[in-house]
Amino acid sequence: SALGFTYHEVDRYEESRRLSERSLQQYPGNANASHNLAHIYFETLDTGAGAAFLDAWMAGYDPRASFHCHLAWHQAMFALHERRYAQALAIFERDILGAVNPRLAMIDGAALLWRFRLDGEPHPFPAWRSLADLAARVSRPGFVFGEIHAALAYAACGDATALSVLIDGLRALDAKGHPIAGTVALPMVQGIAAFVAGDHATALAHLAPVEGEFHRVGGSHAQWELFEETMVVSALALERYEEALHLVRRRLQRRASPRDRRWRDRATAGLAARRG
C-alpha cells in the first residue's frame, strides 16, 4: 500500500490500483490501501464510484481511529466536487471537526472549508474559529505543512495576532537555514493572508513565484493543489482572464475536473465580454 501511494502521486494510477486492491485482499481493514483508492478515484474523476467505495468501507471503520478524519475528508471532497455542499459540510461537522486526531482535524478541516470559500459557498465563521483554536494547540513551526493550513484558519477567522506569530516563526526557521520555511511556506502564507484581505493582486504576487515549489511543503497533490486553486480564483477576481485560463488549462491537461471547467468557462466568458 505504501508503494501504491507513490504510484498514484506520479500518475501511475493502474499500478497503484493493482497494488492497493491486492493489499486490501490480504487485509480488508487496511486504511492506507483504502486511502490510495480514494486518491485514484479522485484523480481519475470517478467521484461517484469513489464516494460509493469509501462510504461502504468507512461503515466498518472505527471513528476512534487516527486516520478516520482524513478518510472523512476524502468523502467530503467527493461530495464537494459534485457540488453536494450540504453533505460535505455535514461530514465536516460530524467526522472532522471533533476528530480524535486534532492535527488532522485542523489540516483537513481548513482545506475543506477553504474550498467552500473558493467556490463561493457559505463557510461558517464559528467553524473557522474552532479550527484556529485547534491550530493553536497543535502548531509546530518545523512542520510547515501544518503551518500553512493553520494560516488558512487564522486568516479566515481574522486572527491577525496568531497569523503574525506564525509568520515570525517561519522567518525564524528561515534564519536558521530551514530549506523551505522562508522561501516557500512564507510566501504561501502571505498569499493566503492577502487573499482573505481581498488583495488578490498581492496574493498572486506572493503565490506565483513559488507555484512550482508548492509540492515541497509535503502532502499529496490533492492537498497542495488548494494553493493553485487560490491563484485561479484570484486571477478571476482581478479579471485577469488570460492568466486564469493559463492556470486552468494546465490543470485541465492533468485532470478535467468540474470545478476547473467552471473556472475555465468564467474566464472564457469574461474574455468574450471584454472583446464585445
Question: Main attributes?
Answer:
75% helix, 276 residues, mainly alpha
Structural commentary:
The chain has helices spanning 2-9, 13-26, 31-43, 47-58, 68-81, 85-96, 102-118, 125-138, 144-156, 160-175, 181-196, 200-207, 221-237, 241-254, 258-275. The protein is mostly helical and 276 residues long.
Query: Main β-sheet: number of strands, strand sense, barrel status?
Result: none
Uncertain stretches: none
Proportion in helices? over 70%
Structural class: mainly alpha
Compute the number of strand runs.
0
**Strand percentage, roughly?**
under 5%
Give the radius of gyration: 19 Å
Q: How many H/I helical runs?
A: 15
First-residue to last-residue Cα separation? 54 Å
Mean pLDDT: 95
- What order do the SSEs take from the amino end to the carboxyl end, as H and E? HHHHHHHHHHHHHHH
Outline, from the CA principal axes? globular
Topology overview:
Blueprint: H1 2-9, H2 13-26, H3 31-43, H4 47-58, H5 68-81, H6 85-96, H7 102-118, H8 125-138, H9 144-156, H10 160-175, H11 181-196, H12 200-207, H13 221-237, H14 241-254, H15 258-275
Helix pairs in contact: 1-2, 1-3, 2-3, 3-4, 3-5, 4-5, 5-6, 5-7, 6-7, 7-8, 7-9, 7-13, 8-9, 9-10, 9-11, 10-11, 11-12, 12-13, 13-14, 14-15
